């Protein structure tokens, strides 16, 4: 039995916790978690949902299915409750989907750490496709077409493309034009699009013209999402999926529900009560969620500016809470200190400056590249008081503990260029 | 893509809900759920755990790992917290285990509906082994040895045996002697034992001399359990696993945690708070749990007596909330009404008498056998008031709504023998 690894982001988070517990000051940019308090209305719904101790229907109770269908409809995706499945996290849904949809998987390079191991667990081959210059999370359309044909020539059977927008790790959002071009390739090459929209409600600019591939190619797009990111509920494990309305979509949804019935039975009843409330988007919750999105944007942009000033090439973040700098321009000075790839860069920042980041290689990026993901959402503070102060500030980057972390990051990044 | 099926127990439950919603009186013996209210202390812990919105360590937070380790130690299984993983249900743990442990699977015939589909999902072959006359849930030791050798001769690679005690579907518990004999075969044939002990705290007789195979063969036994059955928390999805303390066990646990990190991340934080409290077994909770076990025993025995009186052969229930009658003695009169196997018997009881049961074939039993599982735990009533009345009664079988259901079952079973 081969010894497998813990998902690298969760493993790094654990390592950081241990060093922090030992009293070391660590600036933790390694873990993609919105470290903010839970909105009180969600806590109320959790307690009210406590009497939901029956298993109930596998895909979810009627109330939560209706709420998520309406949530989708408000995003230009008309949806019947029968198209929906909720689950303990979007990961579980993604794995179930990979288990029931045949064919190999095409992934953007870089992409979220879990896509590739899940594909392998499901017995699939993974084909990486470079991302375009303008943003991450989606393959470059021309490279995608090319890769599909090449993979087929190699005996592969690429049939599924996973898209993430806004993206983890790059913190960028695909434009409508780019989404249309990818959908065109999917039509041409008969591909299923899995659109991971878990950061959709964490757009920094509420005016951003977001386009889901499910609007363009409704019959070949499965949307997955969850409440972990937009509502700071990572530890509550709530995910949802929307399947196409046609016969193939119905079959896919039934197959995913079948896997669900053998693996997780159903989303915990109290969490279904929470999800019903959240997907109904009451005004008080939306106000908090949108304020959080502004906070994520302000702090991500601050780290982006620091990286730019330190000489890295970095796409400006537009959604989520990530920055993905490329220190290629500093390859020479870095090489003098033994930093020659993503892993050595990650280790150098951790040991020399106490800054924890996750190297691009963990996201399937070129191992040699001097790129890493900085998750900026853990800068709001480690106590509820600090987090509330960051949330309340007109300029969160000026709040003392945030400013202090930003200064430490600035120092760490600037040191990278020092001869 | 083949259309898969929902787990048959969950599918039947849904069907019954629909007919009940349409106003039809159904005696629902089809679903293995302890339909009782949640103990208030558990609700409090759920609400208190609401601020656990961070992902935290994949196997579980230190508190819940310690609590479960101590829970095991109180059951003659000394355990280090590092041997434990908690998860959203024991199903998820079982699947992860099957994904990381190589080799094919040996299952008791009959056994719980999920074991075989999970083995297939994990790419394994399934070899069924008859259960002994004295109880279900474990293979007959001699038949097990025989089947292992035969499977190997056929090119199979049987390496894992799943044991369930107390058992679903038969409601019986393996004796210490039987467990020792199975462990001896496991030693001889180098098999891993997966001991599903989810009904262990639902023993009808607290004096029953329970023996876990983990006591006899600690290095080759993984124990899995959960809170769904003993604490009526099916809809809360809380499971736990205990791995062997040796190097192979550590590797297995790390591998399961690796799969967990890619599939469900971790058990929801508020549920970990609940699990910590529950596995600490405070006196007030234990009192409620033990009272529930007595209730389960009283009602299961009542249904067992009805089945016996109607002419079925049935092992007396000793744990859980199931009875598994065999109407073979009535094959002739049943055949005259077109009832010739488990499926037609199940359909006959549902349409003729409104009694929902699950045919033995769904548990991997011989399709031709006139056997079914009756889950007796749904007889306590459909409202909280009815359930509380059943819980409070010295003789729950005499509470009017329970007595009425028992009378309907008696009528239905007795009708089976009518010429």
TrEMBL record, chains A, B:
The keyword Transferase is annotated on this UniProt entry: yes
Enzyme Commission number(s) of this protein: 2.6.1.-
Domain of life: Bacteria
GO MF term set: pyridoxal phosphate binding; transaminase activity
Keywords from the UniProt entry: Aminotransferase, Pyridoxal phosphate, Transferase
Span of domain Aminotransferase class I/classII large: 26-374
EC top class, as a word: transferase
Chain coiled-coil ranges: none
Keyword Cell inner membrane among UniProt keywords: no
InterPro entries assigned: Aminotransferase_I/II_large, AspAT/PAT-like, NHTrfase_class1_PyrdxlP-BS, PyrdxlP-dep_Trfase, PyrdxlP-dep_Trfase_major, PyrdxlP-dep_Trfase_small
GO BP field: amino acid metabolic process
Cofactor(s) recorded in Swiss-Prot or TrEMBL: pyridoxal 5'-phosphate
Family, similarity comment: Belongs to the class-I pyridoxal-phosphate-dependent aminotransferase family.
Name this protein carries in UniProt: Aminotransferase
Native species: Actinosynnema mirum (strain ATCC 29888 / DSM 43827 / JCM 3225 / NBRC 14064 / NCIMB 13271 / NRRL B-12336 / IMRU 3971 / 101)
């Amino acid at each position: 039995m081969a010894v497998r690894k813990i998902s690298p982001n969760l493993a790094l988070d654990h390592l950081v916790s241990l060093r922090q517990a030992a009293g070391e000051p660590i600036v933790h940019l390694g873990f993609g978690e919105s470290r903010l308090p839970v909105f009180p209305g969600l806590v109320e719904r959790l307690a009210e949902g406590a009497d939901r101790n029956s298993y109930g229907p596998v895909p979810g109770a009627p109330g939560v299915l209706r709420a998520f269908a309406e949530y989708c409809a408000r995003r230009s995706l008309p949806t019947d409750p029968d198209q929906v499945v909720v689950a303990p996290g979007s990961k579980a849904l993604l794995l179930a989907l990979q288990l029931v949809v045949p064919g190999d998987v095409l992934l953007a390079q870089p992409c979220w750490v879990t896509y590739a191991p899940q594909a392998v667990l499901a017995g699939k081959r993974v084909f990486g496709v470079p991302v375009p210059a303008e943003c991450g999370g989606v393959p470059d359309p021309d490279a995608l077409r090319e890769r599909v044909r090449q993979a087929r020539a190699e005996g592969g059977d690429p049939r599924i493309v996973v898209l993430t927008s806004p993206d983890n790790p790059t913190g960028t959002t695909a434009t409508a034009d780019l989404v249309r071009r990818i959908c065109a390739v999917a039509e041409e090459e008969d591909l299923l699009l899995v659109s991971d929209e878990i950061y959709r409600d964490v757009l920094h600019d509420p005016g951003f013209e977001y386009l889901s591939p499910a609007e363009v190619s409704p019959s070949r797009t499965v949307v997955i999402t969850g409440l972990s990111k937009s509502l700071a509920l990572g530890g509550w494990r709530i995910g949802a999926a929307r399947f196409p309305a046609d016969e193939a979509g119905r079959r896919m949804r039934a197959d995913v529900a079948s896997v669900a019935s053998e693996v997780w039975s159903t989303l915990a009843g109290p969490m279904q009560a929470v999800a019903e409330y959240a997907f109904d988007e009451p005004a008080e919750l939306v106000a908090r969620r949108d304020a959080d999105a502004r906070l994520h944007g302000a702090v991500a942009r601050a780290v982006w500016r620091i990286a730019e000033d330190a000489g890295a090439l970095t796409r400006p973040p537009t959604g989520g809470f990530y920055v993905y700098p490329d220190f290629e321009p500093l390859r020479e000075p870095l090489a003098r200190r033994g930093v020659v790839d993503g892993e050595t860069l990650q280790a150098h920042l951790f040991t020399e400056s106490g800054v924890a980041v996750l190297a691009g290689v963990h996201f399937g990026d070129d191992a040699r590249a001097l790129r890493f993901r900085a998750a900026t959402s853990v800068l709001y503070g480690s106590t509820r008081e600090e987090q509330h102060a960051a949330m309340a500030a007109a300029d969160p980057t000026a709040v003392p503990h945030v400013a202090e972390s930003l200064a430490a990051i600035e120092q760490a990044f600037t040191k990278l260029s020092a001869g």
